[in-house]
Design brief:
The protein is of the alpha+beta class. It folds into five domains: 171 residues, P-loop containing nucleotide triphosphate hydrolases (Rossmann fold); 81 residues, Beta Barrel (Elongation Factor Tu (Ef-tu), domain 3), CATH 2.40.30.10; 108 residues, Elongation Factor Tu (Ef-tu), domain 3, CATH 2.40.30.10; 72 residues, Arc Repressor Mutant, subunit A (Orthogonal Bundle); 63 residues, Winged helix-like DNA-binding domain superfamily/Winged helix DNA-binding domain (Arc Repressor Mutant, subunit A), CATH 1.10.10. Helices cover 36% and strands 29% of the residues. The protein contains 20 helices and 33 strands. The strands form nine sheets. It has a six-stranded mixed β-sheet with strand order 2-3-1-4-5-6. Strands 7-8-14-11-10-15 form a six-stranded antiparallel β-barrel. A six-stranded antiparallel β-barrel has the order 16-21-19-18-22-23. The termini are far apart. This is Selenocysteine-specific translation elongation factor. One of its GO terms (cellular component) is cytosol. It is found in: Cytoplasm.
Length: 666
């Protein structure tokens, strides 16, 4: 069993400051592998070597220092555990020294050491001046107080001391390891083929572990591939884990399908997205600000893509048009093609013309919906997520930002959106359910939405606000059809359909906030709503009631009522008649046919009494009993069936269950 702790050591620094020579002196490996690199004497792309220091096995990533190849440097820098900032003693701090140092800060590299190379070319006094300049540069950064080791690859001076300093930095990293969600993830930085093997990719294992024979998912393709073989530092192994440089022999995919920037992950762990919610930080020496709606080059993992920036707030919580050097804020990145990310993943933003690093930050939402600058609620939730450290708090705040969907709240998605391990996420989820911070809202017989209490309360406020608007638009109506409410809250209805609206209404009813009428609920109202009628409308309502009451068993239909009373808007008559129904002054026995409530009660009494005498009754007998015509007897018979007074049996009617309930019990 390999007892070495795998970590990644990455170089950084200006061109020709001796990064590759120092790597060769430390590891014995020449990391310049391209013919052009050999010919020109500069590093163009990433180089790799391995180094053992005590109980640590370091994957050494040698990055190019030329400004034209910073994009290649960024492809390898994201996975560094320890940074080796290389500064030539004869040159001192140079432009790419500063840019690489800013990149390391923006990427959140935890530990580092500074190597002062070419020690043999300068006097001690000059060396002290360069060391003092470096101490000033790193104040307030992760390198403040770090060891600065003078070295020479010509004489070998300082190399042993540098290894000791690097080992001490590794100790500090190991004491406070980065959280590992336990899901395998590797950002591909090289793709090639080997005769007799097939497709091979290399990269740094960012999290989790994988063994030979397992399946992985390739993103952004979303395709499954088979792990046919593994190498770690040039040696065949059965398993690689977080912190290792790995070469993976893949099956089920062609070389042309893959590229630098693609990712391999545990199936179901990652998902591609076109929008990220991010915490932003502008580099301290950025020559230009990050601007709202600016276009930038996003460096994420080992890939890069064009992205548009939406600035939501500055560090003081105010909407702004730009963030200046050294400032922080909250924003969203809209990318040109889908990318994969996880919570807390660092990124860099650069301008392309001229190529300049302006800032970076960390991902808060790897799959975000649009957040508008005026949407204070969502912005506040994102700000709170950025400040969350406790696992329960972080999970609750992350879920509050996820559009509710039973298929999206999986163990893998919770790991992706919080950075928590499956075990910690499960425990935090159970605690949120136990304390009522996560609620399950029914959206079907066997389906439910898991939503934070904060979001549920917001939805309930929206339901009440929608009811208020509908009442204001229909002041004469005492209740509102539930279908109108669903139309007013289309986004909620889309998430959970009518059942979600019904569940929210039931919660409000149970707390005495609204009324629900009908079974199933057909009409709703705020508990404090009172219909408002003008004097003329009250007069018209009284006239409608009088017209129906005076007509007895043969009341006028809607057209006759509006004509007789001179009502120009039939909809007004319907609203007033609905009010009379709700007040139990009239009864609608069929669409467009209303009876006075006392007359309807008398009809029930007569029919019940007759059926207790004769057992069955034909339609003609019902007509004669009521002394009306077939025009009215037909809808009345159907109404009596519907309310249970009668029970149809062929062409006759018997006493129904509702009438039998009134019979005395012997």
């Amino acid at each position: 069993m390999n007892s070495y702790v795998p970590l990644v050591l990455g170089t950084a620094g200006h061109i020709d400051h001796g990064k590759t020579a120092l790597t060769r002196a430390l590891t014995g490996v020449d990391t310049d592998r391209l013919p052009e690199e050999k010919a020109r004497g500069i590093t163009i792309d990433l180089g790799f070597a391995s180094l053992r220091l005590g109980r640590y096995e370091l994957a050494v990533v040698d990055v190019p220092g030329h400004e034209r190849f910073v994009r290649n440097m960024l492809a390898g820098a994201g996975g560094f555990d320890v940074a080796l900032l290389v500064v030539a003693a004869d040159d001192g701090i140079m432009p790419q020294t500063r840019e690489h140092f800013e990149i390391l800060k923006l990427l959140g590299i935890p530990q580092g050491v500074i190597a002062l190379t070419k020690r043999d070319l300068v006097e001690p006094e000059w060396l002290d001046l360069v060391r003092a300049d470096l101490r000033s540069l790193i104040v307030g950064s992760f390198l403040e107080g770090c060891e600065i080791v003078p070295t020479s690859t010509v004489s070998g001076e300082g190399l042993a001391e540098l290894k000791e300093a690097l080992e001490r930095a590794c100790h500090r990293v190991a004491e406070r390891p980065r959280p590992d969600p336990g899901r395998f993830r590797l950002a591909i930085d090289r793709v090639f083929t080997r005769e007799g093997l097939g497709v091979i990719v290399t990269g740094t294992v960012v999290s989790g572990a994988v063994t030979v024979g397992e399946d992985l998912e390739c993103w952004p393709l979303g395709r499954l591939v088979k792990v046919r073989g593994l190498q770690r530092h040039g040696r065949g192994v059965e398993r690689v884990e977080r912190g290792a440089r790995a070469a993976i022999h893949l099956g089920g995919i062609k070389q042309t399908d893959l590229a630098r920037g693609h990712e391999l992950a545990t199936p179901g762990y990652l998902n591609a997205s076109r929008r990220l919610t991010v915490e932003l930080r502008v580099a301290c020496d950025a020559p230009r600000p990050l601007r709202h709606r600016g276009r930038y080059r996003l460096h994420l993992g080992s890939g890069e893509v064009n992205a548009g920036l939406i600035l939501l707030r500055n560090e003081e919580g105010r909407p702004v048009s730009q963030l200046d050097a050294g400032q922080t804020g909250l924003g969203q990145l809209v990318v040109a093609r889908p990318v994969t990310a996880v919570f807390d993943q660092p990124f860099i933003l650069r301008e392309t013309t001229p190529p300049t690093t302006l800032g970076g930050g960390r991902v808060l939402q790897p799959e975000a919906g649009p957040i508008r600058r005026r949407d204070a609620v969502l912005i506040e939730r994102a700000q709170r997520l950025a400040q969350a450290h406790d696992p329960v708090e972080r999970l609750e705040r992350a879920v509050a930002l996820i559009p509710p969907d039973p298929d999206r709240l999986t163990p893998s998605s919770l790991c992706r959106t919080t950075g928590l391990t499956p075990e910690v996420a499960a425990a935090a989820w159970a605690e949120l359910k136990r304390t009522g911070m996560i609620l399950d809202l029914a959206i079907g017989p066997r389906r439910a939405l898991s939503v934070t209490r904060e979001v549920v309360e917001e939805w309930e406020r929206r339901v009440e606000a929608a009811l208020t608007r509908l009442h204001a638009a229909r002041p004469r109506q005492s209740t509102i059809p539930r279908g109108h409410l669903a139309a007013e809250l289309a986004d909620l209805a889309q998430r959970g359909g009518e059942p979600l609206i019904a569940t929210l209404l039931e919660r409000l009813r149970d707390r005495g906030r609204i009324l629900i009428e009908g079974d199933p609920p057909a009409r709703v109202a705020r508990i404090d709503h009172q219909p408002r009628l003008s004097q003329s409308e009250r007069k018209l309502k009284s006239e409608l009631l009088q017209a129906i009451t005076s007509a007895g068993l043969e009341p006028p239909d809607l057209k006759s009522l509006t004509t007789r009373l001179g009502i120009k808007k039939p909809s007004l008559a319907v609203e007033l008649l609905t009010l009379l129904v709700e007040e139990e002054r009239i009864v609608e026995v069929a669409p467009g046919l209303w009876y006075d409530a006392q007359i309807e009660a008398e009809i029930r009494r007569r029919v019940t009494a007759r059926l207790k005498q004769v057992e069955t009754m034909s339609m003609a007998e019902l007509r004669d009993l009521l002394g009306t015509t077939r025009k009215y007897a037909l809808p009345l018979g159907e109404y009596l069936d519907r309310v249970g007074v009668t029970l149809r049996d062929g062409d006759h009617r018997r006493l129904g269950p509702a009438a039998r309930l009134d019979e005395p019990i012997d």
